[in-house]
Amino acid sequence: MSDFEDLVNLADRKFGATVLYANDDFFASKDNLLAPQAAVFIDGKYTDRGKWMDGWESKRKREPELSRQPFDFAIVRLGLPGRVRGVVVDTAFFKGNYPESCALEGAAIPGYPETAALLGDDVVWTPLLPRTGLAGDAKNRFAVEGAHRVTHLRLRIFPDGGVARLRVHGDVMADPRWRGRRGAVVDLAAAEHGAVVTSASDMFFGSRHNLVMPGRAVNMGDGWETKRSRREGPDWVVVALAASGTIERVVLDTLHFKGNSPESAAVCVSRSASAADDAWTPLLGRTRLLPHTEHVFDDVLLAPATQLGATHARLRIWPDGGVSRMRLFGQLDAAGRETSGLAWLDALTDEDLSTRLLGCCGSRAWAARLLGARPFGTLASLKALATATWLALPASDHEEAFRAHPRIGEKKAAGGQSAQAAAWSGGEQAGVAVADAGTLAELARTNAAYEQKFGRIYIVCATGRTAEEMLEIARRRLENDPVAEAREAALAQDAITLLRLAKLVLGDA
Question: DSSP code of 105?
Fold first, then answer.
């Protein structure tokens, strides 16, 4: 098995993945591509269109069709957005009717676009796998390097034929909203948030990955189950959490495991997957488990572990058996928020990241230079880079950024701004919303005087300031000469940018 197959299948139907469109599925439906079970062959089974096949199969192209479009294609909406590390294009039982080759492209598209939009010219499809030859009746495994975060895939087959299954393995890059605001309790062991089961002592009957899947198990096969070990135990699994944090509630579910549930279990946590046994901190001491039961543990958790900013958890079961799900509810710590936020930024497509950076600072030159500086490392290094880049830009780039702000007390920017930037601006100017009419009128007059003198709107870092404070700052700055004021305006923009970058990374927006 390829290493990437140990990663989450981003196109798993459990997460809501679906095949949205295929230009041709004459012989066999596009919907079969993501079926969870292995493909089967039924000898002698036919439909009114030909031999029944368990996969997606298009009709044979002829010369005029080849000249117009030399490939067939299907569009898949991933169940989880992420960075693709490898794909399996399975042509099981397609022996004389498999495609000669395939190619794969990805796109990052917000929301839930309709099929017509996905077929339009506005979608930017980024190559993930170049046109590559396929073998028939085989699991064709292809590693993918350096991919950005994508939400949709386009599988092209040349020129036509059948593919039984498509598996798309990679790193989950969930929208940062999963983290909630500071203090929110979330499942740090959920696959849809980015957790992954990295190793297990045994998974003879059921995959370790099932432990962190969404929902409750549908049957006994939808869980982690070890063979009968005939020893004292324990068996174990290690989970890399979606982000580092403190755990305050543990859920161990033995649903469907009635004659084969473990006798007992324990959970410990660490800041390293490879920690020695004595470096794991006990979170839940060895505790008896019942068959076919969802166990919730909170007040029995051990205090030292609940204070630890853990990155990994280890579940041990005695002596063996099956557990369907494990949930580890807690709060992200500061390091978890920063690390996950930066990983998400590093994985965004150039177009997506550029849009988000322009929401922090409206200079295109500034955004372009930061775009080429990935990976960003730490929030501190990102902020330092942002300031150095900004202060080195010429006045024309500064003026472009200033135009991306509304006047103090107004909502629309002359140069336009994104919805996120508009929301940030509204929050930053909260002090204006509660000002009295007299202060607002004087602020408007001072704004006008400033613009007449300096030829630009008054830029100030408004976060945490009252309208009266902003008015006094404006009056003082009106006394500046143009050179001194250009410097103050640039520093104000830098302060705004740094606050917004922190919100972008830490999810405090």
Answer: E
Strand 8-9 relative to strand 165-172, pairing: antiparallel
Contact 249, 314 (CB under 8 A): no
Same fold for the pair 3-172 and 177-332 = yes
Selection from 287, 299, 201 nearest residue 252 by Cα = 287
pTM attached to this predicted model: 0.89
**Alpha-carbon dihedral 221, 222, 224, 227, rounded to 10 degrees:** 0
Where are the chain's structural domains?
3-172, 177-332, 349-506
Helix (H, G, I), strand (E, B) or coil at 223: coil
- Fold (CATH) for 177-332: Jelly Rolls (2.60.120)
Spatial distance between the Cα atoms of 469 and 231, rounded to a whole number of angstroms: 72
Q: Count Cα atoms within 13 angstroms, Cβ side, for 138.
A: 12
Residue 159 preceded by cis peptide, ω within 30: yes
Q: Return the CATH architecture of domain 3-172.
A: Sandwich (2.60)
Return the residue matching tokens 């598996």. 167
Whether the bond into 262 is cis, omega within 30 of 0: no
What is the per-residue DSSP string for 52-89?
--SSEEPPPP-HHHHHH-S-EEEEEEEEEEEEEEEEEE
Q: Is it true that the peptide bond before 319 is cis, omega within 30 degrees of 0?
A: yes
CATH number (3.40.640.10, 1.10.3330.10, 3.30.450.20, 1.10.10.60) of 349-506 reads 1.10.3330.10
| pLDDT tens-digit profile, the chain (509 residues) | 468 998 999 999 999 999 999 999 999 999 999 999 999 999 999 999 999 999 999 999 988 888 788 999 999 999 999 999 999 999 999 999 999 999 999 999 988 899 999 999 999 999 999 999 999 999 999 999 878 999 999 999 999 999 999 999 999 999 888 998 888 999 999 999 999 999 999 999 999 999 999 999 999 999 999 999 988 989 999 999 999 999 999 999 999 999 999 999 999 999 987 777 788 999 999 999 999 999 999 999 999 888 989 999 999 999 999 999 999 999 999 999 999 999 999 999 999 999 999 999 999 999 999 999 999 999 999 999 999 999 999 999 999 999 999 888 777 887 777 788 888 888 888 888 888 999 999 999 999 999 999 999 999 999 999 999 999 999 999 999 999 999 999 999 999 999 999 999 998 65
Residues pairing with 142 in the sheet: 87
368 in Cβ contact with 354 (< 8 Å):
yes
Angular region, 173: left φ>0, alpha ψ -120 to 50, beta rest: beta
**Helix (H) or strand (E) segment spanning residue 468:** helix 467-477
